[in-house]
Write a structure and sequence with these properties.
alpha/beta, seven-stranded mixed sheet, two-stranded antiparallel ribbon, 9 strands, about 30% helix
Length: about 260
Amino acid sequence: MPESSAHPNARPQHPLDQSDASQPTAPQTADSRRTAVLSIDDRHTLWNVSREDRAEALATRPLLLMLHGWGARESDILPLASSLPPEFVVAAPRAPLDAGNDYGFAWYPIAALREPAAGGDQTDARPAADALVRWLDEVAPVGSRSAQISVLGFSQGGLMTTELLRTHAHLLRATVNLSGYVAQQPRELDELLRVERPPVFWGRADRDPVIPPHLTQFTEQWLPAHSALDERVYAGIGHAVSAQELSDVSAFLDEHVLKESQG
């Protein structure tokens, strides 16, 4: 199912889209598996290198994970790699939950995110983050890859990038969050991140019709306090990714991954 690389989450009506007051809730398929141990099915992972060349590529080139948004799939996010530095080995896994929109998948249930909850939002992304780490240990175990990985995600996949950072920071070289946010619940590595300040790129629209404002406001406060933040705001792009944004991401990855690797 084709999709413009400028709109890597442009599926039928997103459940958090605030342009219409009557929205569907997150699908029962995702809600019912909230506490399940999740897994990534590597049969659906897309790579920018062949299986035959993968081992050599991982041993000599940096790895970039690309995480799609809610209701999308791996084939929607991978085309963005053509606008990023070609030195990266790119892997785009499929999220483990059925989004219930007759097309795509989800990293975590999102029914509770429309309004602020008493005690914070109810983003339950940790099971998917742990599943990604287990999958990485299988397909690119430590010792077989050249260095720490970098991760880029769009929308719900953007939240997953910061979830990985807050729970498995030792794995990451650079984090790119596009049109996503940070979960409000505390995580075990938050204080470590406050000290170490790893590089994070956060790109978003000036007015995003999908991400609830209270989550954007929390992210505006959290990221500068826990990272060396490169924040970019793009006028008029909605819930999408622009060519200028991809150019800025390329420069960020070049500075914080490629040049540092050469140094």
